[in-house]
From TrEMBL:
This is SnoaL-like domain-containing protein. SUPFAM superfamilies: NTF2-like. It comes from Colletotrichum chlorophyti. InterPro entries: NTF2-like_dom_sf.
Length: 146
């Protein structure tokens, strides 16, 4: 799907596609939205460079999640290839006896590849959020299930 969105509706559709890939909890699908040389700055983690490094940012926690859902709150395209956004991410920890939903607000900046076969894919993404609440719930769920 990746193509460079032009209109506001196209930006929202592009984000929805990206969220669906992330929400699948399957890092093998990431090459559908990230360029091979993409860079990701997620929360307080060091910058991950390249698709394999980006997969490694998420791979440790994805198996501990039973659910993840991104909801775009606001998004704007600036210039040819920048998207600024705010979103809410809802998580559920696998094995949580209460099946509690953890909602975390997030903001982000995406820079898109503009040329070549990877046009429309993520060249760089910065995600600003406090993911401590879900990490705490994952740790608690792990204890409940041992």
């Amino acid at each position: 799907m990746p193509s460079i969105p032009s209109t506001h509706d196209e930006v929202l559709a592009w984000l929805q596609h990206s969220w669906e890939i992330h929400d699948s909890l399957d890092v093998t699908k990431f090459d559908d939205v990230y360029s091979k040389g993409a860079q990701l700055k997620f929360a307080n983690h060091p910058v991950a460079e390249g698709i394999d490094a980006i997969r490694q940012v998420f791979a440790p926690n994805f198996p501990s999640l039973s659910y993840m859902k991104h909801t775009t709150r606001q998004a704007d395209k600036v210039g040819d290839n920048h998207i600024w956004l705010s979103a809410e991410i809802t998580y559920r920890a696998k094995g949580d006896p209460e099946n509690r939903e953890i909602n975390i607000p997030a903001a982000g900046h995406v820079t898109l590849v503009t040329e070549g076969e990877e046009a429309g894919k993520i060249a760089q993404m910065e995600v600003f959020l406090d993911h401590a609440p879900i990490l705490e719930r994952l740790a608690a769920a792990a204890k409940w299930n041992t």
